[in-house]
Design a protein that fits this description.
This protein has helices spanning 2-33, 88-98, 110-114, 133-142, 146-157, 160-174, 196-207, 210-216, 294-309, 313-326, 349-365, 387-439; strands at 61-66, 72-76, 105-107, 130-132, 220-223, 233-236, 256-264, 268-277, 280-289. With 440 residues, the protein is α+β, with helices and mostly antiparallel strands. The chain has 3 domains: 1-38; 61-321, Beta-lactamase; 405-440. A 5-stranded antiparallel sheet has the order 2-1-9-8-7, sandwiched between helices.
Length: 440
């Protein structure tokens, strides 16, 4: 009976906690929607996740971003520190492409060839061998050749350390806040780390380079024989979501246009993938998926969800608004019929000054700009606590209260049990005493 009573008490407590949490969640949502000027979407202007249809993702960190606007359609632990493994090579090739020519000749040093981890991905390049920078891109992006990535770094940065500084500078330029790179190939180092958010920014910039994007989406490439390599080297893309991937264990996704996979024992499975459908381009990053093929299944589910988001009016409006803001302003011209012979097609200096004054007045009356993290900056009346923060604190307090209540109930139960045992002992003692007296 006591056990049943305890169960009923616990069930009642859990019910009360659930009701409280539900009420607080609704309250927090309503409070956030009531803030003037705030979108009805869950976060700031660069975030448009539809929580009702978002898939379950197994990866420890994941992000889905619209390449052309930077709008985030899905996020999970996007600022959590993770080890990138070979998706590092996206940044390696991006930095190299901005600081070299395709026709550059890379000569491989002993350090580049033999300085990589034994048994790690390589294409058998020898010390002193030469490849063009274009060939190096294929080697790094298709077969994840670690010695090729090190050769790229030495050629562009003078040394691997010097190139790593260029990599970190590039990430900061892109707006990354969670990364530190120490090599060009992604082999494990405790000081070589990133986040899903930073990798999405890197992927976004990478996808803007058509040459690199096309190479990352190439299924097969053949390197010609060289004086040091008697046979041709066949390079096959290791990204198994490419529709024409030739490797086994394929998970073809018809809209995939490129990407890079990675793996180390500590980083686990990592994957960056680019897809395009109906003119919309997405980059998906999943980090630390524990087992195959979860990284591919997570990515496919996120792409299906992401492309469906464009049919959501609220999300579509968010993306269209950002796209419009990113479009360069066209230079204003005078109507052709109002121009006399010899007149300039552009506005006169006086007219331009008037336009500038007009724009200045409009800017003075415009809403304040929104900061990088989706919060209005320097507003004296802005909320110091977000709804999610208040909800988290409330949840902790409720859980602590429930735990305290449970402890109190069990403590009282323990006291009653001890009292019962004491009384039973007294009864037994009296019984033994009476029995002893009768025997005497």
């Amino acid at each position: 009976m006591r056990i049943k009573k305890k169960k009923r008490i616990m069930a009642l407590l859990l019910t009360v906690v659930s009701v409280i949490l539900h009420g607080m969640a609704v309250s927090a949502t309503e409070e956030e929607e009531a803030i003037p000027g705030q979108s009805q979407l869950p976060s700031g202007p660069d975030w448009a996740m539809d929580e009702d249809t978002a898939p379950e993702v197994v990866a420890d960190s994941a992000i889905l971003m619209d390449i052309d606007t930077g709008v985030i359609l899905y996020e999970k632990n996007i600022h959590k520190r993770q080890y990138p493994a070979s998706v590092t090579k996206l940044l390696t090739c991006l930095v190299a492409a901005e600081n070299s020519e395709l026709t550059d000749v890379v000569t491989f040093s002993r350090e580049a060839v033999f300085g990589i981890e034994r048994g790690s991905s390589n294409i058998g390049i020898d010390e002193g061998e030469q490849l063009t920078m274009e060939e190096c891109y294929y080697g790094a992006l298709l077969t994840s050749a670690n010695e090729v990535s090190s050769g790229i770094a030495e050629h562009v940065g003078g040394s691997i350390e010097g190139f790593a500084e260029m990599m970190n500078a590039k990430v900061q330029e892109l707006g990354g806040v969670d990364s530190h790179f120490v090599n060009a190939n992604g082999l494990h180092d405790d000081n070589h780390y990133t986040s899903a958010y930073d990798m999405a920014l890197i992927g976004q910039a990478f996808a803007q380079n058509k040459m690199l994007l096309d190479i990352s989406g190439t299924a097969f490439y053949r390197l010609d024989a060289t004086p040091m390599q008697k046979d041709e080297i066949e390079l096959r893309n290791h990204h198994r979501m490419l529709p024409d991937c030739e490797l086994g264990g394929r998970y073809p996704y018809e809209y995939t246009i490129g990407g890079k996979n990675g793996y180390t024992d500590i980083a686990r499975l990592t994957l960056v993938t680019f897809a395009k459908k109906d003119g919309h381009r997405l980059v998906c990053v999943v980090l630390k998926d524990e087992a195959k093929p979860n990284h591919y299944l997570d990515t496919i589910a996120l792409f299906d969800y992401g492309f469906a988001c464009y049919d959501n009016p609220a999300v579509r409006a968010q993306i269209d608004e950002k796209a419009k803001a990113l479009q360069p302003e066209e230079e204003e011209t005078l109507p052709e019929e109002n121009m006399a012979d010899g007149d300039s097609e552009t506005l006169t200096q006086e007219e331009m000054d008037a336009r500038v004054d007009s724009l200045g007045k409009r800017e003075d009356s415009a809403p304040e700009e929104v900061g990088e993290q989706g919060k209005e900056e320097d507003r004296p009346d802005r909320k110091r606590w977000s709804g999610s923060t208040i909800l988290t604190i409330a949840v902790v307090l409720v859980v602590l209260a429930a735990a305290g209540t449970c402890c109190y109930i069990f403590y009282q139960s323990w006291l009653r049990e001890q009292e019962r045992k004491r009384r039973q002992a007294e009864i037994m003692a009296r019984h033994r005493a009476r029995k002893q007296r009768r025997n005497d």
